[in-house]
Protein 1
Amino acid sequence: MMEHNPKYEPHACARCDSLHTCTGTYHCWCNQVEIPENVRDYIMACFDGCLCPDCIEELKRTII
């Protein structure tokens, strides 16, 4: 029987509440996204949790 792993369940984005999955592993989509340091600092300062791909891309376009 396969063990339940909540890591692979959808999580709500800390910015927009949309559901996305982050596995927290090297192969997760979030490890493949380049996030500029100023955007990463903003995310860490403003949110308690993971952001969805759309929010990350939007912040990359709007934060200078």
Protein 2
Amino acid sequence: MVDFEMAEIVKSLPFNYFSGIDDKVAAKIDAGEDVIDLASGSPDLAMDPAVLAAIQLALTDPSNQAYPPFTGKAKLKQAVANFYQRMYGVVIDAEKEVMIVNSSGVSVVAVPQTLLNPGDTILLTNPAYPPYFAAAKLAQAEVYEMPALAENAFLPDFEEIPIEVAKKAKVMMLNYPNNPTGAVATTTFFEKAITFCEKYHIALIHDFAYAAIGYNGVKPLSLMQMGNGKNIGVELYTASKTFSMAGYRFGFVVGNESIISAFKNYHSNAYSTVPGFIQDGMTAALNGSYAKIESNRHIYEERLNTLVSGLQTIGWKVEAPQGSLFAWFKVPKGYTSETFADCLLEKANIAVAPGSGFGSDGKDYVRVSVLQELPRIHEVIDRIDKLNLF
């Protein structure tokens, strides 16, 4: 067999961070171990039956055997605009300010490719969702890391960015509710981000993957709700979390017309279209009832509060996040994120994600999901208690 060498840019990429964790968990399960997986980010709650019915019906529609429009069906783009009006009170132009994509994972990679030239600077938080760094590498961009630390509620301080860096920056990527920290953006924070980006002519990209998941009275804010949010940036949205449709790989982007136009051009060349039956199902989801969204959010909230209160009771001084599907827990003294994650997996069969995989500022944390039913959450607390770590 002839051995071919991969391109240098691909060689420079780390293999998907979460794949390695999945492999460890799978090996334990294959060995007959009862592993409770709190490392995964795949929603476990059911989607709305009405949406599933719409998808099943769309599968039988002969028109969906053909290629759908490159930029998405018109009725779907209008449904996106309707959704933003209903959820956030924001007016979105369905044709000029909406882009349909094959999952927000695609847009995370594609937006930097669309807006950055080799050598340009992108501003990313540390910690951050690992694919952001891979996306920057693929765009051959320089990364400036903005610390997002506990003392600042995991929100970066734009005044700490050197002027020479700000002048070179072309893109800023934010993500609130945040993965991995669970932090939620405030109006004041978004206003500061917008003012900073306007001053230096930086495209503001907001990954709104956990838009519908705020806890204990907190409702996550959309960048589009801010006065100049739509003028300076775009928002990436996914069906995975809001609608429990991770396997359908659907997302959209809304906002600044020039960014959307450029993105449409890139996407039409680099990716295929979203299958028509999925588009029809998403049209039903966006135009339909949001009751299932809220009921699922309530279940996640109950799980989170149970986990946090239980861990606090056994002596682990953890704090509850305000949103997302994750909690960001500081590890006990004497451990790093990796050694503590290994301890939980080897001694208690509990899988969590080491914080170091999200950036150097995650070295003292682990990311823990709320994607297990309540009895399993209670079991997690019991297993950790038996380790006598606190």
